[in-house]
Amino acid sequence: MQRSPLALPFPPIGPIAGVRIGTASVPYKQWTRDCVTLIELAPGTAVAGVTTRSRCPSPEVELCRAKLPGGRARGLIVNAGNSNAFTGLTGRQAAAAQAARAAERLGCRADEVFSASTGVIGVPLPVDLALAGVDQAHARLGAADWLDAANAIGTTDTFPKAATASAMVRGAPVRLTGIVKGSGMIAPDMATMLGFIFSDAAVAPSLWQQMLSAAVASTFNAITVDSDTSTSDTVLAFATGAAGHPELAAMDDPGADALAAALADVCRQLAILVVRDGEGAQKLIEVTVTGAADDASAKRVALSIANSPLVKTAIAGGDANWGRVVMAVGKAGEPAERDLLSIRFGDTLVAQAGAVVPGYDEAPVAAHLAGQEVRIGVDLGLGTGRALVWTCDLTHGYININADYRS
Amino acid sequence: MQRSPLALPFPPIGPIAGVRIGTASVPYKQWTRDCVTLIELAPGTAVAGVTTRSRCPSPEVELCRAKLPGGRARGLIVNAGNSNAFTGLTGRQAAAAQAARAAERLGCRADEVFSASTGVIGVPLPVDLALAGVDQAHARLGAADWLDAANAIGTTDTFPKAATASAMVRGAPVRLTGIVKGSGMIAPDMATMLGFIFSDAAVAPSLWQQMLSAAVASTFNAITVDSDTSTSDTVLAFATGAAGHPELAAMDDPGADALAAALADVCRQLAILVVRDGEGAQKLIEVTVTGAADDASAKRVALSIANSPLVKTAIAGGDANWGRVVMAVGKAGEPAERDLLSIRFGDTLVAQAGAVVPGYDEAPVAAHLAGQEVRIGVDLGLGTGRALVWTCDLTHGYININADYRS
Description:
Chain A is of the alpha+beta class. Helix content of chain A is 31%, strand content 25%. The first copy, chain A, folds into two domains: 19-276, L-amino peptidase D-ALA esterase/amidase (4-Layer Sandwich); 284-402, ArgJ beta chain, C-terminal domain (Ubiquitin-like (UB roll), Roll), CATH 3.10.20.
């Protein structure tokens, strides 16, 4: 697969205290690359998570949901190349067996091991390979780094994706590092692809969950590649406590704001990386909607634009076809008044008050659309609701990838 | 534009008593083809209509809505190549002036002339051309036939689309003929493209509207090409009364059932023709959902499948990737139980009870997917709700057409 033209270089990231990484190669697919990732977490690590709202979740998603209330994690397993979704009892047993094997190797309880799988739907995870993968990865714990892990969790991804941030919490420098995979079957408002964030912060699980849920709403849940939602979407965040500061327990504790901001920053960076690796993407599109009745309405309008095949193909073609933005606003089913609407491409006001602006000059818009980062701004002129959503264009590359994915 | 491989031959259709057709060529675009259609309707013609639910409707849509309560029509004007949508006061004045000119030529009131325009959004209808088009088309009334009209109303359509049906109403043979345009920006539940149906039936406007609204729900509003909804969507049905039978006034009048069934038949044929001309379509896809909590829920699940880019690209690739159907059911947000779900491609049961069927043989499915007409069946196993929706595959042709539509 050709590397996305929107790819960013992998950032330099050091280790997170309390986190050890191992990867393994077991042939779920005809791959020679590593496809099982095992991450060991220090005792006492807090865990938070958000999973897909799909009505057909994978066994791994169900296991995460069952384990999250415990609030503690000692391990994470990620399988790439097989999502194990919609595989009935066989798949559920395979997922449980793999977590049990990892717990045995790590010396912890099975309900402290979280797992996630990504790949084709409907093929049960081969349990022998899954167990062998855990064994191999465990033997290599500490030998792999973030780049290895970011590569090993990918499927149709064309580049490894990671982000990092830091915060000062009660005098202690705290680090956060996240890795993410995702390229297609990406839609918001129902969690998202697979994302894993690690920190050495000391934070109570309930507060960590509160921070993660808030961050996900405006980051992972504000991106869309193709409006399709995976059965395996999972974001997990782990905080090992190794930074050594007193544990944060509530949002008004000193330093909690800084940690929440850093977590949101990592989530935002990772979410945008997913869009940058959107299947076939040639352009990153940022859709801002203001003046809506409320924020939720703004987000639905923004997603109507971001999910419109006609808007996305127009951007792919570098075509300043703002009429398609009008169409997408109109179909969203949200409060909107045609004659109050204004539309910008980049910094150029294109239409307002129900018509194109007088003396509209397409040249600066065409220049903006020729770039790799396109901004569409819509003001509905009704209220103070606003939303920001990221997507990519719809190109021949998307068809190429998806018209023949399995073979 | 290459003719759709799913095109059907234009059917042989005779005239409808009380209907005369004229077309004209005025250069809204760099076209030499006719692009204005004027249809004269006999005095007393009943009219019914359904228009887009877009919040950004065109002036023509607003005019139709204002005139429909009158229940009577003497004329219809259709402009192709310019939708006149989102053109402010200038566009509203142009639409009103064109209807007034047609009324003058036809010797009727302006509120008895309905109009519809289709094409690029945001460019005001040039009023001089619009008036000249009416004059030219009026001078040619009676010289054009259904094929001329079906061609003249098209934009990115690759073949002319018409359907016909008949019914016996109180001993009188009644005819119905419809024409339709549409290929992209097609999504259901908010009316649809442009469709015009003509009959010589004698029917009260309120009953005619009742019949049309019922027919549209399961036909035009059950298709989708790309999930995008036009600002100009309009379906109008005209009944001239020339068949001579006593006027139908209520659904329990003898013959009303037959007329309603024939109207629904024409709507269904026309709706499927639009999908057959879906931009880039290589395959017609029929999605049936049964076992849903109720019919409305079934329709939302069916549309989630029919609008999924991943399902549509899989079908384009002839790929029996039923996991993507699971994904689309899961994301629909409707009541669904993974372990009660069953999925068919063509006549082959592929998955049931939350997993692939034992001994699944992909060969008959692959053979079915190699054809031009693909059937996807989903049973949710919950209730008696059902729905039938039509769509097409998503191919390179769609990108080719829409990444550079305006130029």
